[in-house]
Amino acid sequence: MKVDFLLIGAAKSATTSLCNALTQHPDICFSEPKEPQFFSESNWRDKLDSYHSLFKKNTKLYGEGSTNYSKHPHYNKNIHNDIYEYNPEMKIIYIMRNPVDRIISYYTHTYNRGHETIENINNAVLNNIHYIDTGKYAMQIKPYQELFGEENVLLLFFEDFIKSYQQVLDSIFEFLDIDAIEVDEKYLNANKSFDKRVLHHKYDNPKTIFEKVKKVLLILKNYTYSPKFIDKKPILTRETKQYIINHVSKDINEIEIMTGRDLSHWLKIKS
């Protein structure tokens, strides 16, 4: 088998909801977990059998949704070529969101998952270029277009998905060359940043009996609240918002050219 398509991000742009919706199609099998981050490691060639074992049924198309594939250059710096080596006919799906809104959601999620330790969102954004790089959508997607061809890279927008998720799903079904199906909204998992069921990343693959038992207890408890858990939208200052816009504006203009979409509202500071 070969994996046929990747939903590569952008992180916190409804990628989880898209994955959940696509798993309802009888011709699609998603990996378990849906974000294996397989190609983020340079030694992926040695683990292909393990990767393929994540796909649990025989079907027409196999896909996965690792958002780390669009966080260049912070993981495997050769990731685009590596994916091309694995499958030069791979189809790529990429969904984009207002960069300021996405960063707020992304920070909240990474903090609550334990990947971010800086408690002030403004300090975190200003001191970690990772937040800016993942919001440079053209920088992330152009290498995929150059390798796989623009016809094999589908660009989507978060706003469209929120407004009419079925229309966006239909465009994906057409892109993957499979029959369109109606997807019940109940299958869409918003994966909200403030969801107290978010587990710390150390429980993703618990190693000790203690950690395994604690993970079960946390799941049964149905939330992982702690005094430092962010349960409301953190506030970016006007200066930090301007900092973000200044760094992504040229990139957003490139996306406008790629898609023919007016994204000028992304470059305006909202109160």
Automatic annotation (TrEMBL):
Keywords in alphabetical order: Glycoprotein, Transferase
InterPro entries according to UniProt: NST/OST, P-loop_NTPase, Sulfotransferase_dom
Signal peptide interval: none
Pfam families to which the protein is assigned, alphabetical: Sulfotransfer_1
Domain Sulfotransferase: 4-208
Protein known as: Sulfotransferase domain-containing protein
Organism expressing this protein natively: Patiriisocius hiemis
